[in-house]
Amino acid sequence: MKSHHVRTHASSEGLAREDQLAWRIAEVAADPVAVEDDVAEMIVNRVIDNAAVAVASLHRAPVLAARGAAEAHPRAAAPPSRGHGATVVGIPGRFSPEWAAYANGVAVRELDYHDTFLAAEYSHPGDNIPPILAVAQHTGADGAALVRGIATGYEIQIDLVTAISLHAHKIDHVAHLGPSAAAGIGTLLGLAPEVTYQAIGQALHTTTATRQSRKGEISTWKASAPAFAGKMAIEAIDRALRGQTSPAPIWEGEDGVIAWLLDGPEGGYDVPLPEPAEPKRAILDSYTKEHSAEYQAQAWIDLARRLGAERPELRDPRAIDSIVLATSHHTHAVIGTGAGDPQKFDPSASRETLDHSLPYIFAVALQDGTWHHVDSYLPERAARPDTVELWHRISTVEDPEWTRRYHATDLSEKAFGGRLEITLADGSRHVEEIAVADAHPLGARPFGRAEYVAKFRTLADGVLAPAEIDRLLDTAQRLPDLTAEELGSLTVHASGLPAAPEGLF
User: Fold this and answer.
1) Which of 281, 414, 455, 474 is most buried, most CB within 10 Å of its CB?
2) Whole-structure pTM value
3) Same domain, yes or no, for 117 and 60?
4) C-alpha distance from residue 328 to each of 117, 222, 296, 335 (Å)
5) C-alpha 156 chain-centroid distance
6) What residues make up the domain containing 323?
7) Percentage helix, strand, coil, to 5, in the chain?
8) Over the stretch 77-133, which tens digit does the pLDDT of each residue have?
9) 313 and 207, same domain (yes or no)
10) Residue 473 counted as domain residue
């Protein structure tokens, strides 16, 4: 990997194109380096993972709305040069690729249940898959080309997330997704750096927004934001292919992203990117979720489940004086009491809010000994009096050591858990720690292919016919070898789906 220093440049400095971050990313996208076998295997895992969480959300309101918008943009039969359209999860037919990517992106993100990478910024790099897949289906690409594109999408997003904090300036994390998805599509299509460079600039320019979407009472837009970024990436590629140009230098300009949205005119970042001919392996540094909740809650769910089973008396709020979770700054400030959000303690809060409330999540996992993507968020579950009482006795604090470990570059030291301190009503204390979730590569039960397949089967049960479950798994596990025709069947059809609400289209 090579580190690229990125800073604001005055217009009078005349920053050369080849020295701009967008150009360097475009060069990485154009590098025809082969995808290594273990990377290809993990890409298959994440395609299965995305399919699992998308299927589980097919009946949810944000997904219905997004699917309805896609259905309003069908792709009629056309010559191959005009494109084939892309599939939408759950329904038959072909649709305009940007709208298919949007619908599928909402389905993937709705339950907050797919993969994650955390560093200077937060991310769900699996959000790259819907737009890249949609363009692959639309253009008649094969599975090998799709694998190359996804490898680039993951690489660029993870490299940006490693170096550039957006949340520190209250910018939503999907600002890294627009450029990464555009780069992944550039690799998929074998585009020249010039074209991908223009698309990256447009994708970033159109996908920067504040992170109010993840603050306070969280709305349904939380699932739509990354889907919108993927849609914008496809549109940016389309415009770039038509010869249209973009604001530049988009990161480094005097009125660019760094100067006015991030660290300011004096700020700078060191962004790691692969050298020429260096394999793109960043996907292997990411990790998926066993539980449908914000990633920084994963390890705490595992600890709470185990603790409740070992010491069931702790499930009774009358036995507890206080529970303090000492953790990283990120966890404390985003899903903990450091956020200062009273909604995180409101039993009537939205599902989107509750899955960003660590005190709620820990209380329910402790009492139930499990975590369910639907049942754990039901209004009647959140309002149970003994849960509310326990929930309000839980708080978080920042611990500098756990913050340091959160940001560690040594993956054997990097951690997303913390230290649990329970003070019981009788004055006694219980203290223990957990570093990573059980499903993490360094956890008690790391996820492998069998676990990804089991996750899909579990979430698809009762939603898809058994034969459809088997067909999707067979297709996905042959992804690197799929023909273009077979890639068109990398989707699922479900029966009995509710009708989408009407909108403008």
Assistant:
1) 455
2) 0.93
3) yes
4) 15, 23, 9, 11
5) 14
6) 295-434
7) 55, 10, 35
8) 555 557 899 999 999 999 999 999 999 999 999 999 999 999 999 999 999 999 999
9) no
10) no
